[in-house]
Amino acid sequence: MPKIINNLRSKISRAAYQLFSEKGYSAVSMKIVAEETGIAVGTLYNYYTNKEELFIKVIEEKIKNHKKIFDKYLQKEELDLEMFITHLYDEINKSKGVIDEVIKKNINSKEKKIVTRLRSDLLEIVDQILIQFKEKKGIKKGAKAERKRGVYALLIMILILDRRFPGEREKNISYLLKMANLI
Amino acid sequence: MPKIINNLRSKISRAAYQLFSEKGYSAVSMKIVAEETGIAVGTLYNYYTNKEELFIKVIEEKIKNHKKIFDKYLQKEELDLEMFITHLYDEINKSKGVIDEVIKKNINSKEKKIVTRLRSDLLEIVDQILIQFKEKKGIKKGAKAERKRGVYALLIMILILDRRFPGEREKNISYLLKMANLI
Amino acid sequence: MPKIINNLRSKISRAAYQLFSEKGYSAVSMKIVAEETGIAVGTLYNYYTNKEELFIKVIEEKIKNHKKIFDKYLQKEELDLEMFITHLYDEINKSKGVIDEVIKKNINSKEKKIVTRLRSDLLEIVDQILIQFKEKKGIKKGAKAERKRGVYALLIMILILDRRFPGEREKNISYLLKMANLI
Amino acid sequence: MPKIINNLRSKISRAAYQLFSEKGYSAVSMKIVAEETGIAVGTLYNYYTNKEELFIKVIEEKIKNHKKIFDKYLQKEELDLEMFITHLYDEINKSKGVIDEVIKKNINSKEKKIVTRLRSDLLEIVDQILIQFKEKKGIKKGAKAERKRGVYALLIMILILDRRFPGEREKNISYLLKMANLI
DNA sequence: AATGAATGAGGCTTCATTCAT
DNA sequence: AATGAATGAAGCCTCATTCAT
């Protein structure tokens, strides 16, 4: 007794994202995703080939989203570092759980490549924003490789601090600002 | 045809630790742990109530071990920050896989408490070492809460950088030194 | 956006027959049949109650078709045994995959009866043709039951030899001729 | 609550063989095999890697068995063709259902090779017995390829006739004798 | 105390079938 | 009459755990 459901793909995506964030890849069953979405298990497979694809697509979407948001900063005249970091902090923490999984390696190599590329895109954008900021302040930019490490550390630390010290948003951001200045 | 085995508990612990480090909690089966230890699956259950307890106990031991090692720094006359960070880096990276799992939360709350306590112990010790170092240099120590955040960030970043930039130990350490100075 | 399709029933039948022949009953999904026919899955169920009925009806049609073709031999003045066997060989091998399934018994008893009847029809016709041939040659016909066995063996062997020795049509036919003479 | 079971491997094999014979590969579920054996599903997997291996091993065993039995005929002084065909008939019909599957192609290529080899072995042996028989009677043996076709036809027909005319063992055998003489 | 075969719940996935549009 | 998304039972397989030996 099928019922037509609107925007099911995005409903599934939302539920899956939520669950993966909370529990991590292997602790989430397709059954749970289906239940949380309010559909039958089989229906999931009309939208995603398998569990892994579901996971990858969920991440893909999230990171694309981040990228889009931060791209806007590159066009801005004024750039306030604190405001940017704050924004970064809030945005990234919307998807914290999923990103955990990206850091982990229990994804097979084909998917890993996709994830790696997505991550690179995101790092690149943050790097460019920070460079632009330094140029405005007249600060010399460091070596590319070192910046990369610094940006990476910054993004990861956003996730980690928010999880570990969830009630201390301001203090976390203030620490992250110091980290941003190391770059 | 049972065989008596000495120090079986520590043998299991070693094998399990190795495996959890490499593959993560859910990718390790009790069968593999038994095989790697060279015993039967049933025997595992004479030493650990279940898989989760095995995991927790393994972590417990490792962190206790770290603690012991770093405790020695507190008695030392001379304290070279770079040397300490280097040591920290190498020690922690020996158990990176396991610690990943600790960061994740797919452990139930009872066990989580234990892990939390263990982690606090480790943080505490590193904090004290850093304080001691600052005192020797005549630098004023910051607020407890802020130090805690910094130390935590430092430890996590050790794991993360080593995984992401595995061939760049020196550069990683050099970045971590800068982070340590933020504390 | 429904579209009206002419002769859909026969289009489905053709596609299904092709697929069942190639892959066998259980390896063919209703989805594939629909795709191959160029229609939606649901439409299949407007023409056939379920998968099993589709299968049965497809066979039914094929065997009827054989029957029709061989019926013509009964009216012929001249009858060359070799030519007949050759024709039989080629005709039957067009539907080999489906007939495999008929030989197997994973069909429930109701359908089995239908298939049995269809098969009997076909056997009957070949029997009559062979009798007619013998009469012309002045050879005495054997007992009904024995002829039945022989004809059955002949038909089955056509399928089997063509599959096992697919490149050896002439030699297969020559062997089958010998079998036909046993009848 | 495990209970130790003796000769479980052969018990599984027997049950599986029976079921595959009756229903064919895809209509037999691992659950049914387990139930019929009187064990849990998981236990099956302690003895066979997967369903396909179970199937292959069951066949393997049966054909090996046939081979062993017929090997004895090669040493015999006296050889009565009728007796041999009768024996062949009875032996082969013990495993009829499974052999069906060997004829079908729904096995992947790796396993198919094994099955093909096993079948060749069996054909070879029957061929040699028939040659030996002919030599004793002073009959010239035909070309290898033609004998192969004839022996294959003989074996298949044993299966087919017994299934189609199950109550007519003697008449089936008598027909098969005629087929054997064609070789 | 050690063994490892047996257990069975639970995970992923497929697919015949239904029915709102 | 046609559509195809939704359904959910059922299949294969894994693995933590138990317990007779």
TrEMBL record, chains A, B, C, D:
<feature type="DNA-binding region" description="H-T-H motif">
    <location>
        <begin position="29"/>
        <end position="48"/>
    </location>
</feature>
<dbReference type="InterPro" id="IPR050624">
    <property type="entry name" value="HTH-type_Tx_Regulator"/>
</dbReference>
<keyword id="KW-0238">DNA-binding</keyword>
<dbReference type="GO" id="GO:0003677">
    <property type="term" value="F:DNA binding"/>
</dbReference>
<dbReference type="Pfam" id="PF00440">
    <property type="entry name" value="TetR_N"/>
</dbReference>
<feature type="domain" description="HTH tetR-type">
    <location>
        <begin position="6"/>
        <end position="66"/>
    </location>
</feature>
<dbReference type="InterPro" id="IPR001647">
    <property type="entry name" value="HTH_TetR"/>
</dbReference>
<protein>
    <submittedName>
        <fullName>TetR family transcriptional regulator</fullName>
    </submittedName>
</protein>
<dbReference type="InterPro" id="IPR009057">
    <property type="entry name" value="Homeodomain-like_sf"/>
</dbReference>
